[in-house]
Amino acid sequence: MDDKKTIFSGVQSSGFLTLGNYIGALKNWTKLQNDYNCLFCVVDMHSITVRQNPSELKRRTLEILKLYMASGIDAEKNILFIQSHVPAHAELAWVLGCNTYMGELSRMTQFKDKSARNDENINAGLFTYPVLMAADILLYNADLVPVGSDQKQHLELARDIAERFNGVYGNLFIVPEPYIGEVGAKIMSLQEPTKKMSKSDINPNGYIALLDDADTIVKKIKRAVTDSENEVAYREGKDGINNLLGIYSAVTDKTMGEAQTEFEGKGYGHFKAAVAEAVVECMRPMWQRYKELSDNNDYVEKIYTEGALKAAYLADGTLKKVYEKIGFVI
Ligand code: ATP
Ligand code: LTN
Questions:
Q1: Contact, 93 vs 135, CB < 8 A?
Q2: CB burial class (10 A; 0-12, 13-18, 19+) of residue 145?
Q3: 5-11 and 36-42: which strand pairing?
Q4: What residue spans of the chain are helical by DSSP H?
Q5: Mean pLDDT of 244-254
Q6: Measured between alpha carbons, how far apart are the two ends of the chain, in Å?
Q7: CB burial class (10 A; 0-12, 13-18, 19+) of residue 167?
């Protein structure tokens, strides 16, 4: 093994990947991949905390894996895999669940939000979801976890669980640090810019899916909610414009300051057209690579099969140490 540190991150296969997922997560992964040993996972087991259509779940899981590769993540250098292919995730989650308090889980804002939106299916998995997330991370002794800012609270819980376990049974887990990018840590809905852009939004105009075509992207950005002024400036109360400026700056790699200066004195129509064009230009190479991968299913299968073998090797090593520590006969 080299002396590089380890990164683990994942996205749920619960919907189309959005521009929020790209800017908040995938884009940072591509930047970090050369300096770390990385594992990138499609967390399909997390997705079923909300009821999924089985054939769609399957299709989306593969779609997301291909989007990882299409967005520039090197499938040969990093470990890319599907969570349900590595049983150790569920096994460690059980052990960690016995070291997590109900009170801690009740404080998770994502649980509160999702159960409020989904009151006919407040299942136990939705409640214990952060424990599974902690297992994902701790199994690989990840030092760093690149996520959007909505995941900060879950990361803090993973750290608390790791510290608690280390305290009771002796040092075993690395306590992971979050990595939250400065720009685009929380991309907002285009229709309700005080809410996070979410792939499970029922209104498709709220999000840009990474596989939306150019015309759809232009239309969605044109329809984005702004305000009654006509000044492109980053300011409190201008949630819609702030969000579009954040998107522009993330996809062009310009600072917010540069982005603002560029649109000084320009109207919203001009600004929105420029944002849409920048998003489309950023997506274009991804669409091309995605198409190539979709024509090559054998290669995609090889990547996730080998990825699961490599991940399982690492995960089983950690799980064995955990079982030893807690006194299971092994
Ligand atoms: P859902 O809305 O269904 O809960 P999601 O879109 O939040 O799903 P996840 O799979 O939960 O998607 O998130 C994958 C990664 O993308 C996480 O690191 C998350 O923080 C990040 N992310 C998701 N939405 C955004 C957003 N709007 N802005 C920035 N990062 C985001
Ligand atoms: N909870 C995350 C998805 C996720 C994840 C992880 C992210 C599950 N396991 C491990 C980073 C590391 C979310 O984005 N909702």
A1: yes
A2: buried
A3: parallel
A4: 19-21, 27-32, 44-47, 54-70, 88-97, 102-106, 109-117, 124-138, 152-169, 214-222, 239-252, 256-262, 268-294, 297-326
A5: 96
A6: 26
A7: exposed
Q: Supply angle C-alpha 67, 57, 40, rounded to 5.
A: 40
Q: What is the DSSP letter of 151?
A: G
DSSP state of 10: E
Give tens-digit pLDDT for 185-228: 899 999 999 999 998 788 999 999 999 999 999 999 999 999 99
196 is a catalytic site residue:
yes
Two tokens, residue 272: 């929105």
Q: How far is CA 223 from CA 213, 250, 292, in A?
A: 16, 20, 31
27's tokens: 């884009």
Taking the CA of 210 as reference, the closest ligand is: 1
In contact, 314 and 140? CB cutoff 8 Å: yes
Q: Candidates 14, 17, 21, 57: which one to mutate for ligand 1, based on the most atoms within 8 Å of Cβ?
A: 21
Instruction: Give residue-wise pLDDT tens across range 153-197.
Output: 999 999 999 999 999 999 999 999 999 988 778 999 999 999 999
Q: Which amino acid is at 52?
A: Q
Work out which ligand 2 atom sits closest to the CA atom of 146.
11
Distance CA 170, CA 120 (A): 42
Q: What is the pLDDT of residues 96-137, one digit of tens each?
A: 999 999 999 999 999 999 899 888 999 999 999 999 999 999
Residue type, 55: S
Does residue 137's CB lie within 6 angstroms of at least one atom of ligand 2?
yes
User: How far is C-alpha 243 from the geometric centre of its chain's CA atoms?
Assistant: 18
Question: What is the C-alpha separation between 64 and 85, in angstroms, rounded?
Answer: 15
Distance CA 108, CA 94 (A): 19
Residues forming a β-bridge with 178: 145
